[in-house]
Amino acid sequence: MNRALCAVAGGGAGTTVLSALLLLLEVETRSAIQIFAVIARFVGTPGNQTIGFLLFVAAGVFAWPLLFLAVEDYLPRGPDPAARGVVFATALWLVFVITGRGTLRGPLLAVYVGYTLFAHWGYGFTLGAVYGRLTDRPAAWRDRVQEGRETP
Amino acid sequence: MTWVSGLVALVAVLLPVALVAHVLGGTEGRDQAGNGSAEPVAEDGGTVDGAESTITHAESRAWPSIGFTTHGKPPGLRRWLTTVDHKDIGLLYICFGVVAALWGGTDAMMIRTELLTAPVDVWDLQTYNALFTTHGLTMLFFFVTPVFTGIGNYFLPLLIGADDLAFPRINAIAFWLLPPSLVMLRGGLITEVVGKALAPFGVGVESLLALEPIGVGWTLYTPLSIQTTNPQVDVALLGLHLSGLATTMASINFIVTAFTERAPDVGWDDIDLFSWNLLVTSALIVVAFPLLGSAVVMLLLDRNFGTTFFLTDGGGPMLWQHLFWFFGHPEVYILVLPAFGLTSLILPKFTGRTLFGYRFIVYSTVAIAVLSFGVWAHHMFSTGLDPRIRASFMIVSVAIAVPSAVKEFNWIATLWNGRVRLTAPMICLLGTLSTFVVGGITGVFLASIPVDLLLHGTYYVVGHFHLIIVGVIPLSMFAASYYWFPLLTGRLYDQRLARVQAVTAVAGAFLTFVPLLLLGYEGLPRRSGTYPAAFVPLQQTASVGALLLAVAVVLWLIVLVQGARVGPRVRDADPWDLRETGQFTREWQWFEGQLAEYRDQSDGDGGSAAPDRRER
């Protein structure tokens, strides 16, 4: 499969994980955080949560994975694409957590910050792991790991 | 609410995509085949150190991704849905238990968030009540017991030389009853999501939204649990009943296996300590769980069919408490005995000595099991029970400290003059030993009636038992996961990160629960989402400890997932140097056989293997 398609498939899987985790947060907290308002603020459509969520999904499935493809070689923690995905997602999370914060504060802010970081790591890890597996690179980069260890 | 339905629809669409991607990627043998044959392997290879080994392509292709159990099984999801292999079912149990633990842990983190501040300003009180109810039920019935059942599933047959458990199909049924039980128990949340998703289509929404997470406390005390109108209580009771059936089936399976399937050379006098503890635990389950099931049915009848078991004189609320705790206190030992077994099994491996006082540890396990049925009313000292009855329960409750202390002293004696190796599993076990000292001794005080009357309704009790069930139990599970990880995956994890994880978990357990003991001494009542402002510093300290525990859990996930994916391959079946001290036990011998089989297979395939990554 073409590398871009692999990345998009990874993005689809990652977005599923991220959405499921955010949904769990929303339901468990009995909508105290209003995560969909957060998402709408994040993508810049604070007035419209439906459009906001659709844009969020589009970014998660298409835009971020393709960006990941472009910057992958420059990210630390390689060559494992999943580990690089986590680094990539941490950068995304920083933007998410700052732009989406709104009026959250106090203990809720702590939950929001910690949980969304965990969820984004889930996104990045899944993105990288699925992408790495589909591009058939596990064998290749694992061998690189071995070689790397052999030549200090 | 449209966004929720949109989200659910999206998840429903994307999930199959993810599954397809997963299956396309292949589940086994995804490493690309090459040519050439496997490199000869040195018998003494230090093996776990990736720097020493070059893995050839052929060996790489034959290497299993999860468990050395793939031989002759259908690929992909079908393997996991149809399996009756004890090792696969063991892994399913463990994964299920981990999911439940993360869910119950989310409840716990939300409890600690609410308690960061004195007033009720994060979640409302009803949500707080629901949180500590579902946290308790999820952790006890769907995390601890399933994980230990899973470890038992995988290792009991290997340890006693059986081919499989005595009843493989019953084993599968027992596992597959658990997921529906969990869904029923946590119904309130799940039905809310489904209800909101169905709202735009106008299908049966009211009945779904009528179910709310239950908030009556995990002990389900009557009359509150009868008078609460929330229908989710009924659904949760049925889920609890179902999980009891599953647990009982699994334990019968363990008992029959231990009695009838042992290898000819495994006598009662040389069964390992984990199998002993699992056997005794299973006996407790067979006696205690049917009683819970019956009591739950009586409660359901009271709620729905107008019976009055727990309402009127001759029965009443006290009857529920007696029945519940007759199950409930043995349940405490059902949870903790397998943890003691793991400790007794693994500790000697990293001290270079045999376990001190094997026979007395077995006796103490049996003694705890017998005594555990004579202590239940110490949960009821403050209910106005007859003082003579209370005195007898106090005596037995104090007495049960003796066999528990026998274990602790024997473990310490095993460390004494040993060659202690501070590996990740060993650090976890030292944490187990130390949390058991504090958690156990605080329990001895609670057995004393006058002390209990003062402390029963306070955080002291919460601190006491959490030091056991968040100290001893998960730490022994972490230890087992680290100890057997090479056997489960054929790879090794990042040992340094694992040691950091172990220290973080131990520190987190103490930092979270010692402040709760202090809060209890100061008299702060438990089960309340609000408290006087004077207690803020201790409560916030406990919340910081909980955060540390959460970090430890995430680290554990990272260590194991990355270890299974990219850890260096283990090429010698003795990653812990157990041969040196004559402790290369039966499960590792089995592992050695499996490794040799894989090596032969790769040698055989080496020349002719086509470079088709999906051939297996």
Please tell me how large the radius of gyration of chain B is.
25 Å
Biggest beta-sheet profile of chain A:
none
Q: Would you identify the regions of chain B where 5 or more consecutive residues have pLDDT less than 50?
A: 1-5, 20-61, 606-616
What class would the helix/strand composition of chain B place it in? mainly alpha
Helix fraction of chain B by DSSP (H/I, runs of at least 4): 55-70%
Chain-averaged pLDDT of chain B: 86
Q: Any idea what the radius of gyration of chain A is? A: 17 Å
Structural shape of chain B: globular
Could you give the order of the helices and strands of chain B?
HHHHHHHHHHHHHHHHHHHHHH
Summed up, the helix count of chain A is 6
Explain what the structure shows:
- The complex is a heterodimer of chains A (152) and B (616).
- With 152 residues, chain A is mainly α.
- Chain A has helices spanning 3-28, 35-43, 49-71, 81-99, 107-134, 138-150.
- With 616 residues, chain B is mostly helical.
- In chain B, helix 5 (125-160) packs parallel to helix 11, helix 5 packs across helix 13 and helix 16 (401-415) runs antiparallel to helix 17 (424-447).
- At the A-B interface, helix 1, helix 3, helix 5 and helix 6 of A face helix 1, helix 4, helix 8 and helix 21 of B.
What labels describe this entry?
heterodimer; A: mainly alpha; B: mainly alpha; 68% helix; disordered N terminus
Give a short synopsis of this structure.
The complex is a heterodimer of chains A (152) and B (616). With 152 residues, chain A is an all-alpha fold. Chain A has six helices and no strands.
